[in-house]
Amino acid sequence: MSKTITVIPGDGIGPDIIESVTAILDKAGCGFNYEYADAGLVALEKHGELLPESTLEAIARNGITLKGPLTTPVGGGFTSINVTLRKQFGLYANVRPVVSFKGTKARYEDIDIITIRENTEGMYSGLGQTTKDDGSEAEAVSRVTRVGCERIVRFAFETARRENRQKVTAVHKANILKTTSGMFLAVAREIAKEYEDIQFEEMIVDAACMKLVMNPENFDVIVTTNLFGDILSDLCAGLVGGLGMAPGANIGADCAIFEAVHGSAPDIAGKNLANPSSIILAAVQMLEHLEMQDKAANIISALRDVIESGDRTTADLGGSHGTTEFTQAIIERL
Ligand code: NAI
Ligand code: MG
């Protein structure tokens, strides 16, 4: 029986890039059934809420979700849908691979880095308050747990081992944030001993930023806490040509959500201008997660060939073609 996955087209360019990626998955012979679900502004208009119960049920039922970008309205006290999903489904690992493609506007050519970010704790635990009535003082609490640190570090080493990677770099600020980052580093050192086949390196976050820009080819797998991971993963996307080339997976024990990391790009929505590479690369991550390595490899090589030959690429890649022509060029190679 073929596997059913939940598909959330989302807002703005979401429907365009989802149409592209599902056509590619079908042509590659992945044989999925798609259960479409609404979230974001489109859901607010149709169902009166950003994240309807029926969508949450579909995500839970199918276990695997492919998600387009969602617009969180500014004002009105809406909490971020992405943060809600991470919490609700315990999606503790945010996996952001970046890999160089020739023919993009990237400054580097040999980058292949996976950033693994703890997705549920740390600075983003939502704990904090304004501490003076006149609003002149505020505090935020960063809370990490030993269980949370162990889980993410182990996930990073397991990923490194599965993908035949050489090295895991734990990025921290334990010299200043002695309690929280200190715990993360201590746990990372302990767990590293269980993986003698993989090199372990530790690096302070500010130095990591500098070294990523100067010598990105020295990095392999990076594991870090929530706030540092948020920032470093965008830095890494910049190394390979920006968010249009960067996918992300949010992985928990029972559920996983694969997404384009860019936003809904309202400036180009509905104009057949969006580059679907980010969601295509997210689908590749999804196929690897489902142990469909052959399909994943076929799709990535078709995508690489189109981008590197410049055959019908989109404007952000330096071409002059639309989402549908770019998609067609990939489909012809499958
Ligand atoms: P954005 O990523 O939507 O756009 C930034 C710039 O990059 C724009 O010029 C856009 O045209 C371009 N761009 C983005 N994706 C592209 C693609 N696939 N192909 C070609 N060009 C692309 O960021 P922005 O404008 O800050 O946010 C717009 C909306 O998206 C906001 O409502 C924000 O909340 C939401 N958003 C949602 C995310 C998600 O659901 N994962 C992530 C980031 C933002
Ligand atoms: Mg971010």
From TrEMBL:
Keyword set, alphabetical order: Oxidoreductase
Domain of life, source organism: Bacteria
EC number: 1.1.1.41
SMART domains: Iso_dh
SUPFAM superfamilies according to UniProt: Isocitrate/Isopropylmalate dehydrogenase-like
Listed name of the protein: Isocitrate dehydrogenase
Annotated family: Belongs to the isocitrate and isopropylmalate dehydrogenases family.
InterPro entries listed in its UniProt record: IsoCit/isopropylmalate_DH_CS (IPR019818), IsoPropMal-DH-like_dom (IPR024084)
Species the sequence originates in: Aliidiomarina iranensis
